[in-house]
């Protein structure tokens, strides 16, 4: 039956996650962002810049694939805020709130659907990378650890997206803000180039960027290098982002729904 | 318990920043009755419905819906109500069928139950054919029908309809009225907001006229109509020279100064005999009315009629 208990709430979240996945069928643009855009990035960067940056496309593919998985994860989280904002501006969120469902179910449903989308993007990128010649050192536990770490960070970073989704006037603004903020954050990192090639003042910023730290951990896990230190720092970042942005988002949501 | 009222509110107040959207509203709806809140845009009607539907907490006052307090027992209230309107919408990117299935699943129905409820609602609302298409391709009327269907998935005892037909063409409006009428015939209590006098007249047992967050008048549609006149007599004299003479005749026969707009004069025509009396008098004085018509009163005119005393008082002061 409907209710606010944990089991009922989880089932309601599952129904709402189903909704967000079904929506994809009708919005090829969004599906494109999860699929064609990262594929395009991977192909372009590897074959256009690979030789110049790393000496060969193979070497660059090995260097860049873990980073592009991380970068893509950041962009996919924008859709949590985008979807939430669409529901808030259209009034759909009110329809949900007028139903006897758990208050946390709409948000939990959206974030769970986001994790499914994240999983799809990771599989797609790693699959394509494999076809292009990428080989993992730790295809089982390294891969599992990397996917877990990326999803944990995605979960934490979703709260930033939720805040933007609650504050923004319309869905277009969410997208605009997401992309203008995420391009510098993901490019000023070690995703595309080795940090040693950057000017000294920039190296400090790049090394502090959680995107770089997570990318380091992913490289270590997939390619058999050191990873524990960067994985722990990533988890600390995830905890800090959640601790700051979850309360901010919920407070902003409460204010918007006054 | 048929004696227990479905909705009772007393002294509801809601502020948004410095503006007072709802300023002390009392209302009472008996079970199975339809109450219409009539008022212009921004009068506070939607805010009243949002508070009663548990979407917005009142700053002062209290209310019960189905016997449950809207603040302390919000969850129980949500289990009894259905909500349709300008602010509660359907998902454009799902099909009509998927929209209804989702609501049914959220209400705890089994898959099989959800499918059968969705299919029967689509049929009843003449949407079976469109049911498998995404809502973004629906016409305005189809969207509103689906919206109403979505609010009925849980067979609510109390239905809130916020401007259910705003923006629809007359045919789609009548179709929706008929569907709402069916629910009322089955015993559902309805609280309806509208900007159309005609709509309140067609659906409501009782009407409250809302302006600036306050109830300014109330009663049965018949009582209100008698008070304000639902029809308006409008005259455009053939020549501007006779404008004043025509205005004088209208004022004398209607007992009220006519509204002037460009070369047009209009007065509320509560008394059906007014038209023939005016025509006779114009003929006697040899004045030719270029245009003369009797039309339904607009909401503006209802307001003028209801607030007319204040306007007249201002005029006598100056």
Summarize the structure.
The complex is a heterodimer of chains A (258) and B (318). Chain A has 258 residues and is mainly alpha-helical. Chain A has 11 helices and no strands.
Through-space gap between termini of chain B = 56 Å
Number of domains of chain B: 2
The arrangement of helices and strands of chain A along the chain is HHHHHHHHHHH
Number of helices of chain B: 11
- Helix-strand category of chain B: alpha/beta
CATH architecture of the largest domain in chain B: 3-Layer(aba) Sandwich
Topology pattern of chain B, helix = H, strand = E: EEEHEEHEHHHEHEHEEHEHEEHEH
User: How helix-rich are the residues of chain B, as a percent range?
Assistant: 25-40%
Number of strands of chain A: 0
Question: How is this structure best described in words?
Answer:
- The complex is a heterodimer of chains A (258) and B (318).
- Helices cover 81% and strands 0% of the residues of chain A.
- Chain A is mostly helical.
- Chain A has one domain.
- The model of chain A has no long low-confidence stretch (mean pLDDT 92).
- Chain B is an alpha/beta fold.
- In chain B, the strands form three sheets. Chain B has a six-stranded mixed β-sheet with strand order 6-7-8-3-9-10, with helices on both faces.
- In chain B, 39% of the residues lie in helices and 27% in strands.
- Chain B contains eleven helices and 14 strands.
- Chain B folds into two domains: 7-226, P-loop containing nucleotide triphosphate hydrolases (Rossmann fold, 3-Layer(aba) Sandwich); 231-296, Alpha-Beta Plaits.
